[in-house]
Glycoside hydrolase family 16 protein (Postia placenta MAD-698-R-SB12), 323 residues
Amino acid sequence: MFTSSMRSTSSVFLALSALALEGLAATYNIDTTYIGTDFLNSWTHETLLDPTGGRVTYVDQATALADNLTYANGDTLIMRCDDTTVLSADGPGRNSVRIKSNAQYTTHVTIFDIRHMPQGCATWPAAWETDDTDWPDAGEVDVIEGVNDQTPNTISVHVGSTCSMPSSRDESGTPGSNNCDVNTDGNSGCGVSNPTDNSYGPDFNSAGGGWYAMERTSSVINVWFWTRTNGGVPSDVSSAASSIDTSNWGQPVGYFPNTDCDIGSVFGANNIIFDLTLCGNWAGLSSVYSAAGCPGDCVDYVNNNPSAFSEAYWDVASVIVYT
Ligand SMILES: *[C@@H]1O[C@H](CO)[C@@H](O)[C@H](O)[C@H]1NC(C)=O
């Protein structure tokens, strides 16, 4: 016989053990801290031809430092594109920077503390994770990405096999497509728009930037955002605590569960990447570029207006990885 007091005892026990499991799964310890010159020593400036067809030339670290496109000092990392050179129409693209962490990560949390992101017509900045030598099979998570100063930020997942998101997700962002498979969705991704304009571009910058955090487990990907000044950032995030508990961080902006996607198998080990391209096959689409109120033709604008890129820089306070 099962009495009501036994039932309540056993459900309390079940609730407690579920809580304990959840608590365990959401607690991470600091693995790597990247600040200032760590980005020179433990990351690589990639010199590949921009895969998105942008009007940029990605330079190596020696060139980036010599031209002050990359500047690392104290708790500051600046990465920008050239903002002084007029380009010839048939010459190479505007010098810019793309860096990736040498280390790769599977289950982890990455916290990006960013003060400023590239802004301006033609800009297409991204802070993201993938293995660009094994794309799309290693998967891709775009934590910060957008074009031509158009807010809000888009958080997106792209993978190389069947994977979709449920039509209703427990997140504060607004979902676009639910299909994450690059083979069947034209690589548009199963993205989510942040609810606030201060998540991206000029509004992000005038608020002093903020923190993005991405949690990846074998069953879910979550992304949170806290603007610099809203007071809502969890203390373990703002203090760069030695251990963090994502279960205290509230509803994520982007929630990518394994309901119809085997998160554990559609992702490999990923590097962390920052880049800044210009124009290319998103920012430079004439419809997208003009709809943003940007002048003339994207490539002409990049070639002829170097000073338009004076705000096209990343200012990164830190990237911290927890495992
Ligand atoms: C390089 O860039 C940094 C950051 O913007 C700036 O503080 C510094 O003055 C620049 N150095 C030179 C030599 O221009």
